[in-house]
TrEMBL record:
Chorismate-utilising enzyme C-terminal domain residues: 178-430
Residues forming the catalytic site: 199, 249
Binding residues annotated for Mg(2+), in chain numbering: 293, 426
A UniProt-annotated Pfam family: Chorismate_bind
SUPFAM superfamilies per the UniProt record, alphabetical: ADC synthase
Pathway, per record: Quinol/quinone metabolism; 1,4-dihydroxy-2-naphthoate biosynthesis; 1,4-dihydroxy-2-naphthoate from chorismate: step 1/7; Quinol/quinone metabolism; menaquinone biosynthesis
Keyword rRNA-binding: no
InterPro entries named among the record's database cross-references: ADC_synthase, Chorismate_C, IsoChor_synthase, MenF
Listed name of the protein: Isochorismate synthase MenF
Family listed: Belongs to the isochorismate synthase family.
Gene: menF
Class in the EC hierarchy, top level: isomerase
Catalytic activity: chorismate = isochorismate
Length: 441
């Protein structure tokens, strides 16, 4: 269908780029054919490698790699969005994420905040794939930029099929242990503690160790296939390390001044029998402890949105059914005041009480004091930001993978009425999908 090699087509466009085009941001595009974006990403040598797909049906799939710019803070990202917006013309997409708690050391190769304007984008929308080369000329020497762009094109490798990840024998270690967990839940649900801190989301790190871990892109591709209604993300900043996940939770989506966010909290498992499953859902919606978990989230989001927006609307409670769990969700819509930026939203909203707690600082203090594992980018933020629209997920239901270890993370909102054993089981339900893909289900 496309007689020209897409890389060749981009090279030619680059060579014939007129002087007048060399201002601000430039995106060169060519149609291409691709089977699996993750299969393509998996064989590339250029870093970083990023995959992103929002949870909505028909959402655009992005596989991006290399960098035109890197941003280590929300302020620098916002300054660049504004600078390119002022120049006008086509605007880029920025991809990246943030750690759960910038106030703690986090993961070794994952900065507290890291967004990139990628060099190469492979996008698929309604079955049509496009390969793009990004350039910019406002902040650098044009000839160097063109040389670097050529070098990145030269480094691209043809897609190869992903081989399915083979189940292996893993050694499992949980931090905290169930015994420690019980002690923490008892502390948080103590009358005295609840009085000043009504909700703390406690988490667990499950370390799976083996001689050779699976290809993260093969794993994500399998995970995605069974995770309808979830976001899908993957990022490799260093060659032997990846962070992947299929989170059901949206931090926010902004289209111009329209904002959509949500309170997703309160959990039960799934039943095989349809009637039994509906009964579990009805019980969840009526359950006091679970309703309280959700209420803590929407109340804080509403109060954070108040100074930034008008016409804030809180939707009804409803059930979101995932493969192994069901959750209570309430959608929130708002109209942002003029000039409210992604920087402001990303400074105000995360970590929401869906993953942190209420009040934020005292919940974070409990987490910092007790959890020995580093949350890093677990329970942080991942997504796409641009001038016109942004969409970001909360990074739960995720795995950090290096050459020997897979680290799985799960948390549970602890409020009045939480029982340690039930909450521990909730953690297991939240990692059930990925555990079964690894042959540990
Ligand atoms: C913290 C996680 O999930 C959060 C906690 C939930 C709960 O306790 O009911 C439900 C959804 C998320 O808000 C996680 O999956 O790791
Ligand atoms: Mg819960």
């Amino acid at each position: 269908m496309y007689p020209t090699n897409p890389i060749e087509a981009l090279r030619r466009q680059l060579d014939t780029l007129g002087e007048s085009a060399k201002k601000g941001f430039v995106r060169l595009n060519t149609p291409c054919q691709v089977d699996s974006l993750m299969g393509w990403l998996s064989v590339q040598r250029v870093l970083p490698r990023i995959y992103w797909r929002a949870r909505d049906e028909g959402a655009v799939e992005y596989a991006v790699l290399g960098v035109v710019n890197v941003f280590g803070s929300l302020a620098s990202l916002q300054a660049d969005l504004a600078a390119l917006g002022d120049i006008g013309g086509e605007q880029p997409d920025f991809f990246g994420g943030m750690a759960f708690d910038p106030g703690t050391p986090g993961w070794a190769h994952f900065p507290a905040c890291h967004f990139v304007l990628p060099r190469i984008e492979l996008k698929r929308c309604q079955g049509e794939a496009t390969l793009s080369l990004n350039l910019r000329f406002d902040d650098r020497c044009p000839s160097t930029e063109i040389t670097q762009a050529h070098a990145c094109l030269d480094a691209l490798v043809a897609e190869r099929p992903l081989s399915p990840p083979l189940p292996k024998a893993y050694q499992r270690e949980d931090s905290p242990s169930q015994k420690e967990w019980t002690g923490w839940v008892d502390q948080v649900t103590h009358q005295e503690h609840l009085r000043h801190t009504p909700k703390v989301v406690l988490s667990r790190e499950t370390c799976l160790t083996t001689s050779e871990t699976p290809n993260p892109w093969a794993l994500l591709s399998r995970w995605q296939a069974g995770a309808a209604g979830c976001f899908n993300f993957g990022i490799q900043l260093t060659p032997d390390e990846a962070f992947i996940g299929c989170p059901p939770e949206r931090l926010y989506k902004r289209e111009g001044k329209h904002l959509i966010t949500e309170a997703l909290a309160g959990t039960t498992h799934r039943a095989r029998d349809v009637q039994q499953d509906a009964k579990l859902a009805a019980e969840l919606l009526g359950d006091r402890k679970n309703t309280l978990e959700n209420q803590c989230v929407y109340q804080q989001i509403l109060s954070q949105l108040e100074p930034l927006s008008h016409h804030v609307h809180l939707g009804d409670s409803h059930i979101v059914k995932l493969r192994s769990v069901q959750h209570i969700r309430r959608l929130i819509k708002a109209e942002l005041h003029r000039n409210v930026t992604d920087q402001q939203l990303l400074s105000a909203l995360p970590p929401t009480p869906a993953v942190g707690g209420v009040p934020r600082e005292s919940a974070l203090a409990f987490i910092r004091q007790h959890e020995r594992h580093q949350r890093g980018w677990y329970a942080g933020v991942f997504g796409r930001v641009s001038h016109a629209s942004s969409d970001l997920a909360v990074t739960i239901r995720c795995a950090h993978i290096d050459s020997e270890t897979i680290r799985l993370y799960a948390g549970a909102g602890i409020v009045a009425g939480s029982q340690p054993d039930e909450e521990w089981r909730e953690l297991d339900s939240k990692i059930a999908d990925i555990m079964s893909l690894l042959g540990m289900g």
